[in-house]
Q: What sequence folds into this?
């Protein structure tokens, strides 16, 4: 919320209300999303809801104040300060899931793990997870937590979609072996897996995140150039379009359904800017499935 000044106030509440109406209950945010504004919006909305109905997840580790060199990292000081700030902005006594947002090379991992364990024991955090780590880092976290008798991690939030699948090589294998759930973010790869982009046509600024970033001259210039010139990317688009037609669904719904049919995935992170997008994404989870053959077209090393 509040990213690129897209969702604030009543519009954000409208989307959250509809999300709750259709049965949604998992809301993921972070202390650094729009420098805390996202948590404030969620908190203002949550204050009028039944708190126990929702699973609220947030994160720590990435700086929320770029003028303060101590506002980032996974030290005891920063984690505790971050959680206190998040609880205040979210207007709640606890968060259901606290996730480390980064791997902190400057802080002893034991310090991070003991701090997270203390927060769980205090009741301010119910469960802990991590995000944006590689295989050996994830395994080290889990082994140290176990050997020190500390709170177990329950989830890994990682970029995972039909175009970004490097996590299949190590991280997903660790999650399977250790019993963690995988929560994919960037499930539609900044809109590249929605079917809205066409061959030999550069996205316009109004065409979602890719168009916006291309217009602002960001890193997506290189990313779009890489994908737009990759025949494998367009072959995936063609296959998704074909499968979507057979099910009378959209390409975005097929892309999300591919993730949802993986046993290791308890939930998928979606980001919407309108009720229309929300309705489309929610329909990916309700009342239909891809066939084994269709999932198998992109099976890889699951």
A:
């Amino acid at each position: 919320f509040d990213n690129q000044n897209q969702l604030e106030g009543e519009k954000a509440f409208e989307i959250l209300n509809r999300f709750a109406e259709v049965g949604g209950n998992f809301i993921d945010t972070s202390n650094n999303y729009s420098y805390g504004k996202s948590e404030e919006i969620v908190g203002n909305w949550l204050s009028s809801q039944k708190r126990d109905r929702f699973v609220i997840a947030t994160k720590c580790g990435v700086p929320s104040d770029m003028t303060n060199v101590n506002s980032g990292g996974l030290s005891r000081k920063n984690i505790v300060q971050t959680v206190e700030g998040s609880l205040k902005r979210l207007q709640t006594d606890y968060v259901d899931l606290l996730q480390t947002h980064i791997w902190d090379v400057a802080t002893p991992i034991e310090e991070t793990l003991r701090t997270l364990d203390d927060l769980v024991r205090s009741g301010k955090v119910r469960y802990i997870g991590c995000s944006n780590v590689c295989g050996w880092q994830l395994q080290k976290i889990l082994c140290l937590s176990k050997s020190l008798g500390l709170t177990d991690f329950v989830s890994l939030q990682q970029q995972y979609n039909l175009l970004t699948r490097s996590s299949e090589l190590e991280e997903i294998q660790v999650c399977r072996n250790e019993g963690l759930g995988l929560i994919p973010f960037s499930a539609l790869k900044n809109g590249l897996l929605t079917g809205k982009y066409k061959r030999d046509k550069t996205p316009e600024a109004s065409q979602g995140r890719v168009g916006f970033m291309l217009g602002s001259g960001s890193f997506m210039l290189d990313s779009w150039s890489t994908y737009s010139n990759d025949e494998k990317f367009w072959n995936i688009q063609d296959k998704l379009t074909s499968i979507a037609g057979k099910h009378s669904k959209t390409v975005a719904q097929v892309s999300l359904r591919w993730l949802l049919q993986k046993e290791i995935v308890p939930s998928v992170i979606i980001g919407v800017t309108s009720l229309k997008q929300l309705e489309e994404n929610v329909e990916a989870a309700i009342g239909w499935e891809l066939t084994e053959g269709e999932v198998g077209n992109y099976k890889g090393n699951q």
The beta strands are 26-28, 55-60, 95-100, 125-131, 153-159, 181-185. The first helix runs from residue 9 to 21. The longest strand covers residues 125-131. The chain has twelve helices and six strands.
